[in-house]
């Protein structure tokens, strides 16, 4: 396994990540300063309050906040017997958080004697084990925001047609196109251009760290589309529009059939 382990925090990604260099390491780990106040709450208590967090990026894993132990309510933590081993970072120890009459088992981990020395003195939390996370005074959802991940939302006059099993579900020349790092282009369509009579509201919901909470629509018993009724600021232009999974429908753009992409939603 190729590995890049910086001896000091890096200020940006190694060039090989961006330029398609086939000789770039297959596994990258780097540690960057976060210039935001980060807080986490659990059981009515503020468990983390720091302006000295670091964001750890590791190939194939969502970014993780590591925070100095000195900025954690360690009086609310109890070390457990759980351990794990990472060939990159070392042997991890775990702690349970107890507050407000509640517990979050093994919610915190750290490396008392890490392979990467710059991890010493920091701990990380399983995101969903906490009740709420904040960057400055804005609540954030899903996972820490990745500064290398972005969305671009652009109005377009390209004609988008969506079909499934030969049945046209939507057709619009007023799409809003959302370009998101690492994902297929998504086409958000006005509701008046969507055959809502062919769709059923679904019980499914999901939360995106960059766009907000989505509610879903189904067709033939399968979820095929979603809507952000209360999007986050960056995704405001797609409010109340309907987007279909390219992976589960047949999409044409200006009369050209689009390939169904391979993704976790295929």
Automatic annotation (TrEMBL):
Taxonomic superkingdom: Bacteria
InterPro entries according to UniProt: DUF427, DUF427_sf
Pfam families assigned: NTP_transf_9 (PF04248)
Listed transmembrane segments: none
DUF427 domain segment(s): 38-128, 160-247
Cross-referenced Gene3D superfamilies: Domain of unknown function (DUF427)
Protein name (record): DUF427 domain-containing protein
